[in-house]
Amino acid sequence: MLMVVIVEETRLVNIGAKPVEDYVFETILIFQEGSSTVVLKGSGAFISKAVDVYNALVSRLGDSVELVKVDIGSDRFKGRFKSFIAITVRKKY
Amino acid sequence: MLMVVIVEETRLVNIGAKPVEDYVFETILIFQEGSSTVVLKGSGAFISKAVDVYNALVSRLGDSVELVKVDIGSDRFKGRFKSFIAITVRKKY
Fold first, then answer.
1. 3-state secondary structure of A90
2. Which pick of A26, A79, A88, B53 has the fewest CB atoms within 10 Å?
3. B78 secondary structure, DSSP code
4. Which regions in chain A score pLDDT beneath 50?
5. Closest CA to A44 of B72, B51, B70
């Protein structure tokens, strides 16, 4: 019996202090390397930037990028709770 | 024929410059007034604060508040595109 297992790798892009365009390019590069799913994660003040990165990605890639889901919540960070957003996007073709 | 139409009112809370707790109280007040669904909307830098308000609301109300959906995108504002988040929450009981 031959089993073919296709592993869909999900890659994480941590949104931080770099310009929005840097994260857009990083995500496009990940898509070009063959991963179809990317999670854009931002914490605290970088939550807003994570949404900026998503919008810039959509404006650049158009219909070929699909919003899978948006998770929000809080992570424990240095003993305090910090809000986060995790935006899962998928490259369609 | 008697028709009973139940209108579920959805109320909008625009997240701006006020402290997080103010928006939490505003949302709880809306729930107490009988509306079960509230949309927390934040634009630009207030996106992060909208998630803070959601987390503070969950930590205060616990299981009785439910996350319905999270929408992200961009709105045209003064000729420019501005990122937004719209967090829909529902009071369960």
1. strand
2. A79
3. T
4. none
5. B51
| Model pTM score | 0.89
CB contact under 8 A, B55 and A74: yes
A4 assigned to some structural domain? no
Q: Residue B38 sits in a domain of what CATH number?
A: 3.30.110.20
Residue B5: inside a domain: no
Residue B74: pLDDT above 70?
yes
Helix B46-61 with A46-61: angle, nearest 10 deg = 120
Q: In terms of CA atoms, which chain A residue is nearest residue B71?
A: A70
The whole domain housing B63 covers 10-91
Mutate to test the interface with B, among A58, A80, A83 (most CBs of B within 10 A): A83
Chain A residues close to B24, C-beta within 8 Å: none
State the ipTM, two decimals: 0.87
